[in-house]
Write a structure and sequence with these properties.
The chain is an alpha/beta fold and 379 residues long. Helix content is 51%, strand content 14%. It is built from 16 helices and eleven strands. The longest helix has 19 residues. The structure holds adenosine-5'-triphosphate and magnesium ion (MG).
């Protein structure tokens, strides 16, 4: 039997744990063609959630499309992709598509030269860079018109939405808002992981997306539900669990679904031949996974400054450490606060640490903490 604990890419169907509440809330928002901003730290499962939602929406007769802003280096390519996806979702006839596209002003069909030298306008489009914004607005407007014309309901999910800032943000935000707030046949999900940025985009009264939709902060998966999912799979695989307490696993993973999946995946393999799982095996998991990724952590470690190394080591040992306290600075022999602040900020910027709403610094990748603790053990 294949390992049911997937830890990379899109995980759907029976391999996707829980999130029933979130899916049902998103479904009801989309049935009303609402606008939702989906926010969480990295690897909490936003992208997977959108894909699982998509399967459900399709069954209910909606036409969902998905775009990842990461994939589009400039606004022009995003405008083209959006318009092409919407067109394909709503119109299957290539002839009709070509006709539709020919009515657009900024999004021009790419002209193809056939082997005999004749020219044909295909359904692929291109936009000159200077016209990217009008093209995007045209694409959005066209999507709504096409949805109305076809009597269909469209759901547009834009992932990594916080990347919008890379296109030179705020004029774009205003323009997008004024266009999509008139839409009556399209529901939108905007999803992003750079929490600070997502919240700034949506919660700052000065910004265009303020109060434009519901903000849904994706939290951890309920431990009982996740534990049921894990146990059910192990039982299906014929594994025996010997007084295993999964709380250890959830604590070690800090409830990040990716990290839970990673450890369960290893556990499945480690016990593949014995088909028996003990608490000892579970407790060995964080370090096993950390060592699998050691090349990556090694590189981070080598490029860290001395102060950063001390901070990382201290944060690995004491999860709730207060780096700005006198006590901390005396214990670890670093300071002053200004240099600690600069070091921490740089680690956050590099994505190695993140700051919790309560102001604590945590490892973005929980396994890095175990890798560092492992270093201390090796010494
Ligand atoms: N509900 C779930 N059930 C099983 N696995 C999950 C679940 N949610 C997330 N995962 C696991 O976590 C991994 C990361 O999920 P995903 O890519 O959806 O997170 P994300 O929030 O979009 O992350 P990022 O912010 O980095 O884009 C997935 O590849 C999958 O292995
Ligand atoms: Mg994602």
């Amino acid at each position: 039997m294949e390992n049911p604990f997937k830890y990379a890419g899109i995980v759907t169907g029976p391999y996707f744990a829980d999130r029933e509440q979130e899916i049902s809330e998103l479904l009801s928002e989309m049935r009303n063609l609402g606008r939702v901003f989906l926010v969480s730290p990295r690897r909490y499962g936003k992208t997977c959630l959108i894909f699982n939602l998509r399967d459900k929406l399709k069954k209910e007769g909606y036409h969902p499309i998905y775009l990842d802003l990461n994939a589009y280096p400039d606004l022009a390519s995003f405008s083209v992709a959006l318009t092409e996806r919407v067109s394909r979702a709503l119109e299957s006839s290539t002839d009709k598509l070509a006709k539709l596209i020919s009515t657009l002003k900024y999004l021009r069909p790419k002209v193809e030269v056939a082997p005999d030298g004749s020219l044909t306008a295909g359904v692929e489009m291109s936009v000159p860079r200077q016209q990217a914004l009008p093209a995007l607005l045209e694409g959005l407007h066209y999507s709504e018109r096409l949805a109305i014309k076809k009597g269909r309901k469209l759901i547009v999910a834009v992932d990594e939405f916080s990347d919008l800032e890379k296109y030179d943000g705020q004029t774009i935000e205003k323009a997008i808002r004024s266009e999509i707030q008139t839409h009556t046949h399209i529901g939108y999900v905007f999803s992003g992981s750079a929490q600070g940025v997502m919240l700034a985009i949506t919660q700052d009264p000065q910004r265009a997306f303020y109060r434009m939709g519901r903000i849904m902060e994706l939290g951890a998966i309920d431990r009982d539900a996740y534990q049921n999912f894990i146990i059910t799979w192990f039982k299906k695989g014929g594994y025996q669990l010997k007084n295993v307490d999964f709380e250890f696993l959830f604590d070690a993973a800090e409830d990040v679904p990716y990290s839970i999946q990673r450890m369960c995946n290893v556990l499945w393999e480690k016990a593949r031949s014995s088909r028996t799982i003990t608490q000892e095996m579970v407790e060995a998991l964080p370090l096993i996974v950390a060592r699998q990724d050691s090349a990556h952590f090694e590189l981070i470690w080598q490029t860290a400054s001395q102060t950063q190394k001390i901070l990382l080591m201290a944060l690995a040992k004491e999860r709730n450490a207060k780096p700005f306290s006198r006590q901390f600075q005396l214990t670890y022999g670093i300071g002053p606060s200004s240099s600690i602040k600069a070091s921490l900020e740089s680690l956050v910027k590099k994505g190695i640490l993140y700051q919790t709403p309560a102001g604590r610094y945590r490892f973005s990748d929980t396994f890095m903490r175990y890798w560092i603790l492992g270093l201390a053990q090796d010494d």
